[in-house]
Design brief:
single chain, alpha+beta, elongated, 4-stranded antiparallel β-sheet
């Protein structure tokens, strides 16, 4: 409400002040203005401010789109395409295994893994650990991924050292990532193999049997943390299904048939993993759409304002234009005469907009552990775009005024 009142007040006060400054004789003669110096000063300030704002928005919008495109193409260290995750009900582990076996009967399904979460998820599940029977806890947190032995194959996670875990009831085997080894100040991953690991989160003691390459287990706003993968069947809440073919609709029918066979009274819920990953950046996508909207509105307002101001100046300088035409001035020289002040303002606005936009972009990018590099073209492209829009707004009216018959211009008053 304060913004609305302020805008209405400012929008009404300027023309009211200008009109109140007209002398009666000037007004009766239909002169455009009587206070040229003050009027031009205020108009220049308004145009300058509009173009600073519009260019900041345009630069910011391009940066957001560039960052989102960076996310979509970033290698997260695992396969997310053609993978479906299905939510499992709390049930006996035998039912989950039966569901997995039923799924593998379909020729359209490549592998199935039972787990708590896929490789990437925005959660903080984990705790402290004791490595190699040490008495003290390690000074870092370890994130947990509870999964069966098919987890690596389903999501295409890479082993660096050792072997994959084997599903067993008697003992627990751990896979740890490169970051875990790094936090231990160990150079060779082979040195952690066969060592004991106690996980406080589930109070499980087991043996490290393999080291996997780092993958991004949270969104790209976050850096990679130490991580452990091990089997804990009572916490399996999902099935990760990797598909063989592109016939998604037929494969979904096979999955649903296997579901009804195993869990006839439960609701079937699934999600595509690539869509789940994309939804992690929903807030950034909303911000991108809003910034584009504000950029469009700002540019339209600037274009309309410029058109009105140039029309105003052209009408004010009608006789001058006629005299210049009589003295041999070309259309291009008159176009330059009427538009050069506004081109200077736009270039000055770009000089101010670049550091302002750069500051806000850098502050916004600080929220991401993995982010784009700010390049010169992020500022050049919006600057050229805004300049072209301004030139289009200015040129139409100025060319019209410049091509007017000088006789009519000289008679104007």
């Amino acid at each position: 409400m304060l913004l609305i009142v302020t805008v209405i007040f400012l929008a009404g006060s300027y023309p009211a002040l200008m009109l109140s400054g007209f002398s009666p004789i000037t007004a009766l003669k239909s002169r455009p203005t009587a206070n040229t110096t003050v009027g031009l000063s205020v108009r220049h300030i308004l145009v300058f401010a509009q173009f600073v704002i519009s260019q900041v928005f345009a630069i910011g919008a391009l940066a957001v789109v560039y960052q989102l495109n960076f996310f979509s193409q970033f290698d997260m260290g695992f396969t997310k395409d053609t993978i479906i995750t299905v939510s499992l009900p709390k049930s006996h582990s035998g039912q989950a295994e039966a569901f997995r076996n039923a799924l593998l009967q379909s020729s359209n399904i490549q592998t199935v893994s039972l787990h708590h979460l896929p490789p990437v998820a925005n959660n903080n599940e984990g705790g402290f650990v004791k490595f190699n029977h040490r008495e003290s806890w390690e000074p870092f947190m370890v994130r947990d991924r509870w999964a069966d032995m098919h987890y690596l194959e389903t999501y295409d996670l890479k082993l660096m050292a050792g072997r994959n875990i084997i599903d067993r009831d008697s003992t627990t085997e751990f896979l740890v990532n490169e970051e875990f080894v790094k936090k231990l100040d160990v150079n060779d991953p082979q040195e952690v193999l066969g060592k004991a690991l106690y996980d406080d989160n589930t109070s499980v003691l087991g043996t490290i049997v393999g080291v996997i390459k780092n993958f991004h287990h949270r969104s790209l706003q976050n850096s990679i943390e130490p991580l452990a993968i091990y089997a804990y069947p009572s916490l399996f809440r999902q099935a990760g299904i990797r598909l063989k073919v592109q016939n998604i609709s037929h494969t979904l029918q096979d999955i649903q048939a296997a579901w009804k066979q195993t869990f006839p009274d439960r609701v079937f819920e699934f999600a595509f993993l690539d869509e789940t990953v994309a939804n992690m950046y929903a807030q950034e996508k909303v911000a991108s759409r809003l910034i584009w909207l504000f950029t469009g509105v700002a540019l339209i307002i600037c274009a309309l304002g410029l058109y009105g101001l140039v029309s105003f100046v052209a009408a004010q300088r009608t006789k001058e234009i006629g005299i210049r035409k009589v003295l041999g001035a070309s259309v291009s020289s008159i176009l330059l005469l009427l538009s050069k002040d506004y081109i200077k303002l736009i270039l000055m606005a770009l000089v101010i907009a670049i550091p302002v936009a750069s500051y806000f972009i850098r502050e916004w990018l600080q929220g991401f552990a993995y982010r784009i590099e700010i390049s010169w073209w992020l500022f050049a492209v919006p600057g050229v775009l805004v300049l072209l829009i301004a030139l289009l707004s200015v040129s139409g009216q100025t060319i019209k005024a410049a091509r007017k018959n000088p006789v009519d211009s000289l008679r104007y008053e």
